[in-house]
Specification:
single chain, mainly alpha, Dna Ligase, domain 1, 3 domains, two-stranded antiparallel ribbon, elongated
């Protein structure tokens, strides 16, 4: 009788120890901190489980490397963890941590690509925000075969990387990001716009090329159709477009104020030297500029010049344009002199 009671007691103790051991192994907090804490964990593609665990221990993210290693062995998780950037909550249990890594519950980043950005600028934003391989990104953008694979009839994807706010994640492949952006372009370039392009005698590439120039010029939304009309009118008359955005595309340190020597760059993109549209887009325009490129205003302007506040003065004749340009040059001089005077006053205050 005593032996039976002792055996039952022993079994009870062993059971409790087993339950306690399982709880400690899988469900006791493994990640340091409390649920109000968040830690960043970056797992690069190709990293081994041992490397990841060692990294977490060295970063003092986990309390016990052995416990995590043993639990992963029992659950068969070692070869299932996924690369990515994770937001790890403090106090997470071993089981919850492994589940997070195996399920690939990576942290998401909302990344905004503004209208009018060139591919190289987009690559820089993506490299900064999600550490994308920017070199590979640019190689794909300028790969004609990849563009063909995306069903884009162009030698590159410049112009077809639609500006939008995207939900991305760290470590994404450049291919995946580009595909996402091109899909959004196709969604925005609707059947209506395609039909309008055909009616206008424009290819999709020509439409987006003109839209990119409009995007580079327009600051005030209401002026997009007027700017479009200026370029339409110049194209009809076989005049040089003389579009500054095409030069900005050529200067390696742009965008910046253009210099006279920039206008001498020998390139088919230089619309100060060659008539017609450039070979392709010079940035990635939004839908407003694409619509403007297909629905120009019914005006007979041939010239425009900036007013210094984002708006433009439009002219029908060259004489009108020269006068408008003189007014802008005067405005620019006044602003420059004002800045110089304010700078001098600031220096005097400091020296006094």
């Amino acid at each position: 009788m005593r032996i039976a009671r002792f055996a039952l007691l022993l079994l009870g103790i062993l059971f409790l120890l087993g339950v306690g051991g399982v709880y400690w192994l899988f469900f006791a907090p493994l990640v340091v901190g409390t649920p109000t804490d968040t830690f960043t964990l970056k797992i690069k593609p190709g990293m081994s489980f041992d490397s990841v665990v060692t990294m977490m221990q060295e970063d003092k993210l986990i309390r016990d490397k052995t416990r995590l290693d043993f639990a992963a062995d029992l659950l068969g998780s070692k070869n299932k963890i996924k690369a990515g950037k994770y937001a790890i909550v403090g106090g997470l249990s071993t089981y919850r941590l492994l589940d997070c890594l195996v399920q690939g519950k990576v942290a998401r980043e909302w990344v905004t690509i503004a209208e009018g950005k060139q591919a190289r600028q987009i690559a820089s934003v993506l490299q900064s925000r999600i550490e994308i391989d920017s070199t590979r990104f640019m190689q794909l953008v300028y790969d004609p075969q990849f563009a063909h694979k995306m069903e884009i009839e162009a030698s590159s994807l410049e112009g077809f990387l639609y500006p939008e706010t995207y939900e991305l994640y760290w470590g994404m492949k450049p291919e995946d990001v580009i595909q996402m952006m091109v899909r959004q372009f196709k969604k925005q370039f609707t059947e209506e716009l395609q039909a309008r392009a055909r009616e206008s005698g424009f290819t999709v590439l020509q439409t987006v090329t003109l839209a990119s120039i409009i995007e580079g010029e327009a600051v005030v939304d209401l002026e997009r159709e007027i700017i479009s009309a200026v370029y339409y009118n110049r194209l009809k008359r076989r005049m040089l477009l003389q579009a500054d955005p095409t030069i900005q595309y050529l200067v390696p340190d742009g965008p910046r104020r253009l210099l006279k020597r920039d206008l001498e760059i020998d390139s088919p993109y230089n619309t100060y030297k060659y008539t017609g549209l450039p070979p392709g887009p010079v940035n990635n325009p939004g839908v407003a500029s694409m619509r403007a490129s297909l629905y120009p205003a019914e005006v007979d302007y041939l010239y425009f010049v900036a007013n210094g506040d984002g708006s433009h003065t439009f002219s029908r004749t060259y004489d009108e344009h020269v006068k408008a340009k003189a007014r802008f040059d005067q405005y620019r001089r006044e602003v420059k002199n004002k800045m110089r005077r304010e700078g001098d006053r600031g220096e005097n205050k400091i020296s006094g």
